[in-house]
Structure formats: C-alpha cells, structure tokens
C-alpha cells in the first residue's frame, strides 16, 4: 500500500458546498504521481520530458460514500488490484482523517503506450521492478492480460 | 438527447500534453448543468440557494478512447440510461468536431437527497416532468429502483 | 477589441458560493487563446508543438467589482494596452450578460521568449501582423520597450 | 511570516509544459486558508457556514520570475503588507525548495464584507487579534484606511 495525504481546498468546493466530485480523481492521481516518482526513482518533470513510454488512463471510476468538505484532511491509499501485460489497475480508498471514515473509492486503469503515436506496449521492466520495490506487487508476480 | 459544445482550454492540458483525464467528467457535468437548468426552467444559482433537494453524484465512470488535445472542439451528448425511484443514470459521449470521432464515454449516476442531512429521497416530480419535456425519457416512463 | 463569451460553471464556484477569484484570470486567458489562434491563423495544439517562440506571463493583475455567480454569462473584452519590443499588455473587461455590468478588470502582460531556454526575444513580425489584422493595434504602430 | 509548502501537480501544468500562471494565485490562497484557520482557531467549513463576515478579494496581482515545473516543491511565505480599517494586503513569495530561488511574488488584497449583501465593514477584532497572535502584525498596530 502507498499512502499520501491531502487537505481539501477552498477552490475545490463546488456550488453545492462540497468537494466537486471530479476532485476525487485528482486526489488519487496525485497519489499515483508520488508513487510513480518513487517507483522509478525519478524526477517527474524529467520523466515526462524524456521517457519513451507513458501511462495514459483508459478507464476511471469512482464511488461516493460521503460528502467531503472544506479543510478536511484526507488519507489516500493506493493498492495495485491487477497487473496485466500492457495495463495496470490501481484501487484507491479516500479516507477522512482523523475519523478514519471512508469517503469514497476510486479505480484508475492505465495502459502503457509508446510516447510516439500512443501505441500500446508492454509495461516496462523498470516499472514492474519499482512496484515490487514498493511492495505493491509480490516479488514473484507474473504479468498477464 | 441533450447536446452541448465545449472547446478544450490551455489550462486543461496536463504535463503529458493532452487534456487531463478528469476533464472528461467536468465537460459532461457542464452538459448536465445546462440540461438541469432547462429541465427545471430555473436559474442554477437560485436553484442551489433555494432548492430543498439536491442531486449529488454516487458513481462516476469514464472510458478513454483517444487523447484530446488543446483547442479541440467537442460535442457532448447526454442521454438518460435509467431512471430509478431515487437516482438517475446519465450516459455521455464525448465526440470531436468536426471529425465526429468519439474520444470517450462517461457515466454519471446521481442520487436525489434532501438538502438537509443528505438523506435519500424520491426524484421530484418536476424533475421527471422536465426530463420528459426535453425528450430525455418517454412520456409514459415509470420510475423503479 | 476581441470578444469571447463564457458561462460560469458549477466547479468554478468556491466555498464562499461565488466564482473563485483566480477564475477571472482563466476566463481572460481563454479569450487570449482564441485571439492568438485567430491572429496567427493557426491551430493552437500545433503552435505549442512547433513554435520556436512562446508568450509566458510576466505579470497578471485583477480588480474585482462584483461577485460572479453560477450560471452567469460573461462577455470578455480584450484590448491591447501597449505593445513593447519584447512584451505585450492586454487589458480585459469582464462584463455580465445581459445586464452589461462590469464584474472586474484584468491585465495580463506576456513576454516573448525563445522556446529553448526561455530567453527574451522581440515579438515576432507575424504576431504584430496578426494583431493589426484583428484591429487590435493600429496599422502604423511602432514597437518600443 | 506564515509559511506553507505545496508540490506542483500533473494537472496544474498547462500546454506550455509549466505550471499555469493562475496556479500562483491558488497556491498563495491555500496559504491564506491555513493562516485564516489558525488566526481564528476555527474549522474553515464551519467558518464559511456560520460567519457573518467574509473576506472576498478586491485585488490580486502576480509577478513571474521563473517557470515552475511538475513535481517542484514550493515554499509559500505570507506577510501582511498593510492592514486598513476594512481591508488587508497580503504579500506572498513563492520559493523553490530546496534551491531557495524565488519563482514569483503575489499580492492579494481582501476586503471585509457582511455576508448578507456583501457590504463593506471593518475588519473584526478577532481577526486582528489572530494576526497579532501569529506575529503577522505588531501587537501595537492601529488600523487605518
């Protein structure tokens, strides 16, 4: 499990007075960003400038349990639900702090593509190795699609 | 079907050089906003200030087919996929213009709640009537959950 | 004068129930984007991929007259206040529709730089020509810094 | 001086590959939010639900020194530049970490208004007391406009 924390901000609230629903995706993607930087041991700016592969979203999904309000501190928990040959499924939980109550769940599915032409390609070995180093997949995991 | 159009903006692009994935949810929700204003024949600011009921999201889902780039004109098509007693499922298609190529699909599921306490309640009759007036549900539709 | 129109969206409202103050900058920059595409007669995605020069902000400023609420239709008026050798000052007015009441003013100052290294350089001739073609600067204007 | 830290996120980058200019205002306002919660010793959600006064922006201004890129850690320093009878000027510096290099400066001017009708009113005593408790204004400061 990989965990980050975030505070809900004034501009992230919508006209209904709660965090805009799409913010859940943003919060979880921010956790993904920190995890990716750690898994690859790389500066993200450099990664996006130089990498020959990318991980665009192919599917995103969110379930909402409770409204999230201004100033709420959130803990975002990332787990890998499935690793395919060319894609990876991340499962997130959005949890209030300090109450520990789950506000919602998010699933993000990324596909690996060549930077040139966005052509699907296998997940690179260094990414799999990074997932293992962070304990997000067991050392012996085999990829399959 | 209810249709709106939107142009992809400079600040909506992410570090990968394409529209940030969560923007798809935003674009479709904007279509929902225009549809709601029309269905209820109401000013939205007034609606959110005075209404005793609200329509928070309980589920959101998106599939991505093609990257969306800066300046792209999009047509967003909204259909009602299902009307329950207390919830409504909207199905959206995000289509490039003028090429007509689908970039992605979005599903947004809203639940109806009392403004006070966020307690689930039946969809109000005026909302159902508005959906019918816009041709989004057939005149004879019965609600069921 | 170059004019665009925009509608204030649900997610652009903050916890105080009005459009988040920084949205004014966004609305005006969107007008800039449309103007730039017209001035250069270019697709913006292609411009940002291929251009050897860019126009980053060096200064931004906004005065707020009246709160802007959800669903408000706005007319954004862009004028060029000053053209220097290496920079250009745009003056914007944010006006409610249909009431015609000014909500605020924005000034955006862009500097011209080489894409490589962000080194200041003179405004390119094709940009000046585009401003003239749109009537944003008089045909005889001379640049000075 | 009141200080917060923030990391630049993937979705905050624009098509030019750097942090969108209006993000500077957002980062500084987030510092303001944390400062306000501390100065009033209050939960912000409760403050915006119950307070009889508010602090809308009347002016915002930013100078840009250096592009800010993805993943950059920033330190935001807030100082009070001036306290008037009905308004307060905050001066912010946006500084890279760990390099210590200033990326830009922001000024935000807030006016105090009654929640009902947005009518200008004097800054409340509890706010002035909070600024003093945080060391943002000297204990003996007198307000003037």
Structural class of chain A: alpha+beta
List the helices and strands of chain A in order: EHHEEEEEEH
**Could you name the CATH homologous superfamily of chain A?**
Hotdog Thioesterase
Largest sheet of chain A: 5 strands, antiparallel
The order of strands across the largest sheet of chain A is 1-4-5-6-3
Determine the most extensive contact between two protein chains: A-B, 23 and 23 residues
Structural commentary:
The structure is a homotetramer of 145-residue chains. By secondary structure, chain A is α+β, with helices and mostly antiparallel strands. Chain A has one domain (2-133): Thiol Ester Dehydrase, Chain A, CATH 3.10.129. In chain A, 23% of the residues lie in helices and 34% in strands. The first copy, chain A, contains 3 helices and 7 strands; from the N terminus they run E-H-H-E-E-E-E-E-E-H. Chain A has helices at residues 23-40, 44-50, 125-133; strands spanning 2-7, 53-54, 57-64, 73-83, 87-97, 102-111, 113-114. A 5-stranded antiparallel β-sheet of chain A has the order 1-4-5-6-3, with helices on one face. In chain A, strands 2-7 form a two-stranded antiparallel sheet. Chain A is globular and about 40 Å long. The model of chain A has no long low-confidence stretch (mean pLDDT 96). Chains in contact: A-B, A-C, A-D, B-C, B-D, C-D. Strand 3 of chain A pairs antiparallel with strand 3 (57-64) of chain B.
């Amino acid at each position: 499990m990989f965990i980050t924390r975030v505070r809900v901000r004034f501009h992230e609230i919508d006209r209904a007075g709660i965090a805009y629903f799409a913010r859940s995706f943003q919060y979880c993607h921010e956790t993904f960003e920190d995890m990716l930087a750690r898994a690859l041991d790389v500066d993200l700016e450099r990664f996006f400038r130089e990498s020959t592969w990318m991980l665009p979203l192919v599917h995103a999904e969110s379930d909402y349990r409770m409204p999230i309000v201004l100033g709420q501190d959130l803990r975002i928990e990332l787990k890998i639900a499935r690793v395919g040959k060319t894609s990876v499924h991340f499962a997130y939980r959005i949890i209030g702090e300090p109450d520990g109550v789950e506000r919602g769940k998010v699933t993000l599915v990324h596909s690996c593509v060549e930077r040139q032409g966005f052509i699907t390609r296998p997940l690179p070995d260094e990414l799999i190795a990074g997932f293992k180093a962070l304990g997000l997949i067991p050392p012996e995991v085999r990829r399959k699609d």
